[in-house]
Backbone:
C-alpha cells in the first residue's frame, strides 16, 4: 500500500466515525494489508480528527487478555490514540444514538504518567517509575467495521476500535498495589456480570504498558508526561445499549461507572 491508499482508507474511517456508519472489513478489500499499513491508516484517521479540533491526551492498548482475544478472534494486542472528546467523567451518561455504533464495555486499569517514556527498551520498572497514578476505568470500544468482523489490521487501522472512555475518581499510587492481583468485579444494571484480575492483561498491566511504549517507539511516537494510558480489559467485552448502567469495582482501590442513554 502507498500514501494514497493510507489517506483514502483513513478518510473513509473518519467519515464513518462522524456519520455513525460502518465499512466493510479492510482486510477483505485489501488482502495484502499489513499491520504497518494499518498503523499508517490510523495516523491519517487521527490527523483528520485533530484537524477537526480534537487533542490527543493518551494512548490505549487493546485485545490483551485471552477472553477478549477469543471473543474477537484477534490474537495479538492492538493500539491506538485517545483524544479529549473521547473522555467522559465518572458516572457520565453517554449518548448512544449518533455517537456510538456497536458499543461494548470493558473494565480496565488506566495509568496517568508523570514522565515521558520513549521506546524501545522500556521495562515494567520504567513504567512504574514514570506513573503518577492508576485509576479504574471503563473503555467503551466501538467498531467502524461492519458487525465487528475484524482482524488485527482492521482494528489497528480503526484506532484500536476505540469509542470513548470513563475514568474513575480514585487516583492511586501503583507502588501501593500488586497490580497482577487487583480484583475487578463488573456489574450491569445492578447485577454481577463478570470478574477478573490484573494478571489477565499480559500477566501484568505494567507489561502491557511497556509493550505499548516499545511498539509505538518503533514509529517514533513517545508516551508524554500527562498521558493517560489504557492497559487493556481484564474481563470479556459486554455489549451495551441505551438504558444500560455499567459499574466496575476494583477491590481495595475504587470504582468507575457510566450509563447509556
Residues:
Amino acid at each position: 500500500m502507498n500514501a494514497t491508499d493510507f489517506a483514502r482508507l483513513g478518510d473513509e474511517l473518519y467519515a464513518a466515525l462522524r456519520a455513525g456508519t460502518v465499512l466493510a472489513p479492510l482486510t477483505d478489500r485489501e488482502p495484502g494489508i499489513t499491520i504497518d499499513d494499518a498503523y499508517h491508516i490510523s495516523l491519517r484517521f487521527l490527523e483528520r480528527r485533530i484537524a477537526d479540533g480534537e487533542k490527543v491526551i493518551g494512548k490505549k492498548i487493546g485485545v490483551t487478555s485471552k477472553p477478549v482475544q477469543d471473543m474477537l478472534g484477534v490474537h495479538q494486542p492492538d493500539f491506538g490514540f485517545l483524544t479529549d472528546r473521547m473522555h467522559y467523567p465518572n458516572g457520565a451518561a453517554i449518548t448512544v444514538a449518533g455517537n456510538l455504533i456497536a458499543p461494548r464495555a470493558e473494565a480496565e486499569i488506566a495509568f496517568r504518567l508523570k514522565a515521558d517514556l520513549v521506546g524501545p527498551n522500556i521495562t515494567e520498572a520504567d513504567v512504574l517509575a514514570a506513573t503518577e497514578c492508576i485509576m479504574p476505568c471503563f473503555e467503551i470500544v466501538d467498531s467502524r467495521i461492519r458487525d465487528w468482523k475484524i482482524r488485527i489490521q482492521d482494528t489497528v487501522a480503526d484506532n484500536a476500535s476505540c469509542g470513548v472512555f470513563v475514568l474513575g475518581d480514585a487516583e492511586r499510587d501503583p507502588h501501593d498495589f500488586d497490580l497482577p492481583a487487583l480484583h475487578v468485579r463488573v456489574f450491569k444494571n445492578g447485577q454481577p456480570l463478570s470478574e477478573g484480575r490484573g494478571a489477565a492483561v499480559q500477566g501484568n498491566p505494567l507489561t502491557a504498558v511497556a509493550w505499548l511504549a516499545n511498539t509505538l517507539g518503533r514509529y517514533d511516537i513517545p508516551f508524554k508526561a500527562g498521558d493517560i494510558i489504557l492497559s487493556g480489559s481484564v474481563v470479556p467485552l459486554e455489549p451495551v445499549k441505551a438504558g444500560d448502567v455499567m459499574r466496575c469495582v476494583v477491590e481495595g482501590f475504587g470504582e468507575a461507572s457510566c450509563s447509556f442513554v
